Every structure is written in C-alpha cells, then in structure tokens.
Amino acid sequence: MKKIGICDTTFARFDMGGAAIDELKSNVTDLKIIRKTVPGIKDLPVASKKLIEEEDCEIVMALGMPGAMEKDKVCAHEASTGLIRAQLMTNTHILEVFVHEDEEEKEEELKTLMENRARQHAQNLIKMVFKPKILEKEAGMGKRQGKEDIGPL
Amino acid sequence: MKKIGICDTTFARFDMGGAAIDELKSNVTDLKIIRKTVPGIKDLPVASKKLIEEEDCEIVMALGMPGAMEKDKVCAHEASTGLIRAQLMTNTHILEVFVHEDEEEKEEELKTLMENRARQHAQNLIKMVFKPKILEKEAGMGKRQGKEDIGPL
Amino acid sequence: MKKIGICDTTFARFDMGGAAIDELKSNVTDLKIIRKTVPGIKDLPVASKKLIEEEDCEIVMALGMPGAMEKDKVCAHEASTGLIRAQLMTNTHILEVFVHEDEEEKEEELKTLMENRARQHAQNLIKMVFKPKILEKEAGMGKRQGKEDIGPL
Amino acid sequence: MKKIGICDTTFARFDMGGAAIDELKSNVTDLKIIRKTVPGIKDLPVASKKLIEEEDCEIVMALGMPGAMEKDKVCAHEASTGLIRAQLMTNTHILEVFVHEDEEEKEEELKTLMENRARQHAQNLIKMVFKPKILEKEAGMGKRQGKEDIGPL
Amino acid sequence: MKKIGICDTTFARFDMGGAAIDELKSNVTDLKIIRKTVPGIKDLPVASKKLIEEEDCEIVMALGMPGAMEKDKVCAHEASTGLIRAQLMTNTHILEVFVHEDEEEKEEELKTLMENRARQHAQNLIKMVFKPKILEKEAGMGKRQGKEDIGPL
Known about the structure:
Five copies of one chain form a homopentamer.
Chain A: E1 2-9, H1 16-27, E2 31-38, H2 44-53, E3 59-64, H3 70-90, E4 94-98, H4 107-130, H5 132-137
Parallel strand pairs in A: 1-2, 1-3, 3-4
Helix pairs in contact in A: 1-4, 2-3
C-alpha cells in the first residue's frame, strides 16, 4: 500500500486537490491518500514536509493557484523554492502543480486548466511511483500538463 | 493547553499582533500566547523559530507591514523566504500575515486591512490547530484574508 | 557580562561599526564587544556566524553600505538572505544595519544617515537584550531607524 | 567502475539525456550510467540528489530546457538554486545543462544547440572525473558549451 | 603552513586564478595553495566547499566572470547565493571575486580589471588570514578591489 500526500489551499478558486484525488483513485487501487488543506501556497512547503515525515507519504502533490498580481508572483517563487528545499531535506518528490490565475483570460478556461493540470500531474505521479520506465521513454518529448503537448523538435 | 507564538514588529503602523491576540482570546480559551516584538520583518524568521524551539509554541503568527518602496519589497521577499525556511527546519507552521503599505491608498483603509487580515489569519490558525477538517471543506473556495472572498470559479 | 558582536566592512564609506560601538558603550557598561571587519557585505553572513559560534556572541550587528548600482542591489539581497540563514542556523539575532548608497543624494546627508541608523539600531539591540518588554509596547508604532519615526496609523 | 547519474525531463523538446549518454559511452568504457527522467526542471534537484545518495553516483548531469516565458525563467532560477543546494548537501558535482527555449529562433538550431551542449558538458564531465588537470590548463580560456568558444582576452 | 584554496573557471576570459596565486606567492611564503578549475561559476560553490572539507583549506578564493546577458546575471546571483551558503555550512570564508563581463567596454580594460581585482582580493585574503587588525583600521574607508578606492565620506 503506497501512501500519497495531497496538499492544497483554500486560496485557489478550484478544488485541484479533489481532482487529483479523483484521478488517482480512478486509476490505481493500491493507494492510501492523506490530504491536508492549508490557507495559501506559502503554507504548502511545511505542510508537504509534514506529510512526508509525520505521515510517511512517499510522494506528495502540492497544488495551488498563485494570484495575478506582481506580489503573487513573488509568493509563487517563495513557495516553489520552499517546495524544492523540502524535497532536498527529505529525498522525496513533491510534485508542484501550480496554475497562475492569469494563465487564462476567461474564468471557464482557467477552471478547465486547473482541473486538467491537476489530473495530468496525477498521471505523472502514477508513472513516477509505479512505471518509471515510461517516463524515460518520454524524455525530451515536449510533454505539457493541462495544455496540449508541444512535442519534440 | 496549546502554546501559540505571536511575533510582530515596531516598524508596522498598526498593532497587528494585538489584534491577532484579541481575536484568538475571544474565540478560544485553552491557549497560552507568547508574544515577541522585533524591530522589522527581517527579524521575524529567527524570532519565530525561537518561539517554536525555545518556548515550545506549536504554531506561530508572524505579522508585519512591508514598506512601499522597491527595497522594501525585497525585504519582504527575504523575510518570507526565511519564514518558510524556519518552518521547514522545525516542521511547524508559521502563518505569515503581511500587509504591504501600498495595498491601500488611504491610511484609514490600510489600518482596517491590517486589523482584518490579522484577525482572519487568527481564525485560520484556530482552524488549523483545532478544526483541520473545516479547511479541507474550504479547499479551492477562493478564500481571502482581510478582503472579501473571491469565491470559486 | 554580555558578549556582543559587531561586524562591518571596508567597502562602506563611513565607520558604522565604530558608531555602533560608541553608542553601545555610552549606554551599557556590562558588555564585551568583539569586532570583525571584512571586505564587503557578502562576507558579513559567515563572519557574523563565526562571532556567534566561535566567539560566543549572543547577538550581532551586521553593518554595511550596499552600492547604488543594480548589481549592488543584488549583492545586498544575497547578503540579507545569508544573514537570515545564519540566524536560523544559530537561533541568534543578527541585526542587519544597511544604508543603501543612494538613500540620500548629498554625501553629508548620507554620512549622517549611516551614523544615525547605526546608533539607533544599537539602541534596538539594547532593548532586545536588556529590555524586551519595551519593544512590545512599541509594536505597530511605525518606528524607523536613521530617519524620523513615521508613527502609527 | 565509475557511476554516473543522468537526470532529464519529459518537458524538454530534445532527448538531451540520450545525447549525453551517447557521448559518455563513446568516449569512456569504464562507466555505469544510471538514468532518471522526471517531468520538469523543478523535479531535477531531488532526483539528482537521490541518484547521489541512493544510487551512489559520484557525479550527475541535470539536463533540461526552460521555456521562453517569464514564469519559465523563474522556474529555471528555482531549479538552478536547488541544484546548487543539492550539491552542497552532498559534496558532489551536478553539472547543470540547460538550454533556454529562446536561445535560438529556429527550431532546427535549437535542436542542434541542445545536442551540442549536452555532448560538450559530457566532455566536461569526463575531464572532471578522469582528467582534472586538463581543466586547470583551460582556466580563463573563455570556453563555451554548445556554441563556439569565445576565447581569452 | 596555511592551506589556501583557489577555485576558478574555464568560462572566464582571463586566468584570474593564476593572477591570484601569483599575488599570494609573491607576498607570503608560508602557504600551500590547492587549485581547482571548474567549467562555470555555478560549479564554484560545491568545488569551494570540497576544498574546505576534503582538502582542509582554511579560506578559499572563488574567481569567475559572469557573462553580460540577463540570464548570466541570474547565474551570478545563484552562484553567489551558493557561495554564501557554502560559507555558512563550513564556518569558513570564501572570497567571491567576480568581474561582470560588461563592467568595462573595451577588452583590454576588462582584462586589466580582472587581473587587478584578483590580485587585490588576494591582498584582502592575506589581511584576513595574517593581519586581521589591519582590516579593522580600514573599516568604513570606502575600499574597492580592481578599481580606485572611493574613500570615506
């Protein structure tokens, strides 16, 4: 039984954690999912690390929606830096799944992007944990999450 | 008895720490609050870490008001990075409660924002410590602190 | 007997370390001051940490004057980040006392600012070490160092 | 038998890891190569560290293609910072081999650059592991990877 | 016998490491110098840390020439951040000696600057290791390396 951590925020405008969990459960049965919701993306690093060290998760998804203002961009940078540091302190992958609020102009498209990116990173997680050789075959293939693959040169 | 750390600054132009403490005490009785005031936001990371490691606080609020100049924005970034690092070193949440001096044009509105954000993050702290399942229900709901919730897409 | 570290640079254009030491000695008798001068502000983090860990200082002032060019701003950011990291590694406060070379246009005013900021942060140090309750009373009061206090909203 | 780690991404649009491995195998026989492919460049730091600590690699190449948008530049910065941190935590070199998607305008030239830079950094790896004295002779010689050497002043 | 580490790059367009070594040997006899040349400035942090921890150097000079493009500026920032982190992890000074390729317009002047800065930082190293009290006398004197001292206010 693999333990997977899902860490998301109340700040985001779509339930990305819920979508990721649904995608995982639809594709893999042998999972135990532990979810933790925090206020904002800057709370994700320590929450993810606690899922690893206190709940024994062997991989975590950290999902969030940085806002569109300049100061939100800085927050996203701080959160990302913290997520990488948390990974290095634990030798454990934390998949960062961020959708910037200004990636799409229309609300409906933003919502779709948030759901798709969460689901496709959940697929990445499945490959990393259960089928790492598939990722190796996709090396350099211009894969994208939430939008169409751009493909190799 | 839960020990809560409150860390704030003399640089800020409103007593955010006082507002947070008032909010906590009005809503929860079983608390011991330890407060530490430092000169500026760059002093918050180590002060917060000491509240955790030397005073046994199980969660900390770090409250401050970054100034409006470009160099103040850099200070805020450094302080935030340090607060995240402090959390990762201690496996303990530190809720960052910053109001940028230029978030509002009028002084009265800035003051109101500082008070409201401090109080609403105090409410977040209460949920995190006492009612974590409530936060999970609010995942992806577009919650904001100090301003109106933007809501889900 | 409290041990205080003073760390400054040869790059700065005013003897900020000297001013800080003078202010400390004029106000407190029960002090041992250990001074270390390094070439530039990027040398301050490790020098400050060595004052803490190898010389047993219980608090350090790190004084410097970042230059006015864009690359100097980056240096200041790196030095500040390092000073915060050093504090977190030692659970010890290091008061950063920086005056940017472009904070004042006239040389004489820059010199005055450097001296005043060094002295007023020395006063902060005295409060932090000897009278921490005074700082708590000043929380949110809009205090500034080297320039006039802006005051509370 | 030297163990070399190769860490690359599915996001990149050319199989840089494959090119590096081909270059290494064409030039050195006494190698064991362990490859790990991850989704994006922000996953490289922990993957590289795991190759060092869990697979006993004595040096790693981390290959990736940061995108052309502003937020991709920030990702690259976060990944690079993480790769340096991983090196410092392990006292082991990780050669960062990044080609920014906007370094060339034409797709064919971008592809050529990605292959050449991967191969020439593989040559650097060979020098670092097997012939360190050659690098010393090249000190200050204006060497470049993937493009023509600029040469000394 | 003092062990000094010299760490430089093949990317730089002048042999800064060679100049630093010449300056050190011309002024001090009781030295053992250990040199390590790496491809670029991002390789300097771990190489410097290895000189300290694996070769017992008690101080290191890290010399390099960041390029003139925007992405080179980011590299310089990452390298500097790593060098400060390496110092904090080892409680050992690493003198960063960087000349940005765009500090001078003419190649001959750039070359002169690179040599002078390397030599003058070597003089700083000598003071730090052998004559620390001289640096204290120079505190706040507006010293520069590679260009004329600007002097005190």
